[in-house]
């Protein structure tokens, strides 16, 4: 027979799971779109543009995500910029994610053999068309495996949102443990945190498997 505490805890954690998934989807979507644009800017001929984007990338890649979250949620209100916990967490994750996506895209573009672009130039293609029709299509295939791995990492990093009070899966599990401890004296921490572990594993395992398959297919190509 299922213990009485399981049903309420499961429903409460399901609410946290919905928040976790929503935060992951928003962070991944914005990071991929913004990071791809920034990565394209990193290979522009303009040195000034590359330098500005490089500063953005190095700052947000270099800072721990938890520091960025604290800065956005606790420091920015001092200058009048206030965000609720979900928005603050999404902004922090998007800053980190877009910076890393930009670096992946830059590396993928620069990994395309230079002879490809030179051949297109010899055929009279201007720089923009060389990038659009020759370099970027090849770079996409090279960028996909590390991007999938980054998506997994970003999904896992959503658990850090709990430090600023986001009611995600981890926060819901912690509150459930605290409530059970106060009401019954038993934490039930092992099954609750075990369930959290299983949920993250189920979410991330297909993505990590996909990343490995894409890497192997790229090596065979």
Automatic annotation (TrEMBL):
Entry's transmembrane regions: 20-44, 65-83, 189-210
GO biological process: amino acid transport
Classification via Pfam families: BPD_transp_1
UniProt domain ABC transmembrane type-1: residue ranges: 17-211
GO molecular function, one term: transmembrane transporter activity
Keyword check for Transmembrane helix: yes
Membrane topology category: Multi-pass membrane protein
Keywords from the named record: Amino-acid transport, Cell membrane, Membrane, Transmembrane, Transmembrane helix, Transport
Protein family (similarity comment): Belongs to the binding-protein-dependent transport system permease family. HisMQ subfamily.
Protein name: ABC transmembrane type-1 domain-containing protein
Organism of derivation: Planotetraspora phitsanulokensis
Top-level taxonomy: Bacteria, Bacillati, Actinomycetota, Actinomycetes, Streptosporangiales
């Amino acid at each position: 027979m299922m213990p009485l505490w399981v049903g309420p805890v499961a429903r409460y954690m399901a609410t946290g799971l919905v928040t976790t998934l929503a935060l992951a989807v928003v962070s991944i979507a914005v990071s991929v779109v913004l990071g791809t644009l920034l990565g394209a800017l990193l290979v522009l001929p303009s040195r000034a543009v590359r330098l500005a984007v490089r500063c953005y990338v190095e700052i947000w890649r270099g800072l721990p995500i938890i520091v960025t979250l604290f800065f956005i949620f606790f420091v920015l209100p001092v200058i009048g910029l206030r965000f609720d916990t979900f928005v603050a967490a999404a902004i922090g994750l998007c800053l980190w994610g877009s910076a890393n996506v930009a670096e992946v895209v830059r590396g993928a573009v620069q990994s395309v053999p230079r002879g490809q672009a030179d051949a297109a130039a010899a055929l009279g293609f201007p720089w923009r068309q060389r990038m659009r029709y020759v370099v970027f299509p090849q770079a996409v295939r090279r960028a996909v495996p590390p991007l999938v791995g980054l998506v997994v990492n970003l999904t896992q990093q959503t658990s850090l949102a709990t430090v600023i009070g986001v009611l995600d899966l981890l926060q819901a599990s912690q509150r459930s443990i605290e409530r059970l401890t106060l009401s019954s004296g038993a934490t039930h921490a092992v099954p609750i945190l075990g369930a959290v572990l299983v949920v993250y594993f189920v979410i991330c395992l297909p993505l990590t498997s996909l990343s490995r398959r894409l890497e192997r297919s790229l090596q065979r190509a």
